[in-house]
Structure formats: structure tokens, C-alpha cells
Amino acid sequence: MSEMQHLLKESGYSDKAIEYYQNKVNVGELSEPDAYAVYTGPCGDTMEIFLNVEDDVIKEAKFQAIGCAGAFSSGSALTEMIIGMTLEEAEKIDEDKIIESLGGIPKQKVHCTCLSKRTLQKAIKDYKEKDKI
Ligand code: FES
Fold it and tell me: Does the beta carbon of 75 sit less than 6 angstroms from any atom of ligand 1?
């Protein structure tokens, strides 16, 4: 285990959260996303989410963040979870579900899961509004 992995583990990140963070799972952009949002949380960190949607089902999901290890591991967990879900299912995912999927995150990083949840909800809301026009 590298020094960094060791430190992350000591501060309360699960092995899965560390793996997501280090492998940058789903970090990236989609060139012509069907749904997109950028959101800045109260901590000052920012996330972008890109989705491709077909018949209300999320086919692809990527994200970018200017943020901490908590933001990156949450973004990876959330994007992994939502691929294959309908928009209705995806917008109901809360912090607890993200933490459950990560298998553990330091207490002081719980709010970071909220950043990814809110960014996703904004992307879905914008997509639905765009659809009505
Ligand atoms: Fe801002 Fe983690 S401290 S998302």
C-alpha cells in the first residue's frame, strides 16, 4: 500500500473509495451531452456532470471536479450507480446511498457526497426543462 493510500485509509476512506479516487473512475467529459450541469457547493468546490440519455435511461455518465478526494470518490460512485437507471431513479439517490456504495468515507467528508448529488439533480432538472420547450 502506498503512503497516500495508507493516509486516506487512516482518515476513514474505504478501499473502494480510495480505488475510485486513484483510478479516476468516470472522470472526463462527454462532447455532446444530453444533460449537463455545473454546481458549486457551500465548501467552494465545483463539480460538472455530463449525461447521455436515451428514452429516459442514463446511458453514459462522466464528471469533472475541482475538489477533494471526497468529491472525486463520490462522483465516481454516483456515476457508476446511475448508468442504466431512469432519470426518476437517479434523481432520488441521496447521500446515504452514495456513502453505502462507497463503503465508507470520513465523517467530515459526508457533505462532499452532497456536492455530487446536487450536481446530478441539477443536470436532470435542466434536462427535463429543456425537454419541455
Ligand atoms: Fe468540498 Fe469535499 S471539501 S467537496
Answer: no
Cβ(71) – ligand 1 distance below 6 Å: yes
- How far apart CA 27 and CA 67 sit, in angstroms, is 12
Which tens digits make up the pLDDT trace of 78-131? 999 999 999 999 999 999 999 999 998 999 999 999 999 999 999 999 999 986
Would strands 46-54 and 35-40 be described as parallel, antiparallel, or unpaired? Answer: antiparallel
pTM for this model (two decimals): 0.95
DSSP 62-128: EEEEES-HHHHHHHHHHHHHHTT-BHHHHHT--HHHHHHHHT---GGGHHHHHHHHHHHHHHHHHHH
CATH code assigned at 37 = 3.90.1010.10
Contact 45 CB / ligand 1 (< 6 Å): yes
Which amino acid is present at 18? I
Tally of domains within the chain: 1
